[in-house]
């Protein structure tokens, strides 16, 4: 069995994602921000708790939604 380069050496060559594909792992900072919004129930309350602007928090959540193709 042939393996891809050192980056994916434990993954058989035919099983790793194609070049240019989005990473499967999320941006963990965006996940943390999203969870705080859920816990607090609002962007404003999460922004107060995290010490970040509401617009910054909305942007992080939008980034996470775009990564997973979520939009309501």
The total strand number stands at 0
Number of helices: 3
Strand content: under 5%
Overall 3D shape: elongated
Low-confidence runs: 1-5
Measured as a percent range, the helix fraction is: 40-55%
| Overall average residue pLDDT | 80
List the helices and strands in order.
HHH
Class based on secondary structure composition and strand pairing: mainly alpha
Amino- and carboxy-terminal Cα gap:
44 Å
Main sheet, how many strands, which sense, barrel? Answer: none
Alpha carbon gyration radius: 17 Å
Key terms for this structure?
single chain; 72 residues; 3 helices; elongated
List the helices and strands and how they pair.
Elements (H helix, E strand, L loop, with lengths): L27 H13 L2 H8 L3 H15 L4
Helix pairs in contact: 1-2, 1-3
């Amino acid at each position: 069995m042939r393996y891809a380069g050192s980056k994916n050496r434990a993954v058989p060559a035919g099983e790793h994602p194609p070049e240019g594909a989005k990473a499967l792992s999320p941006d963990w900072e965006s996940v943390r921000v999203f969870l705080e919004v859920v816990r607090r129930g609002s962007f404003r309350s999460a922004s107060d708790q995290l010490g970040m602007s509401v617009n910054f928090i909305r942007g992080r959540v939008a980034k996470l939604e775009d990564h997973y193709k979520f939009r309501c």
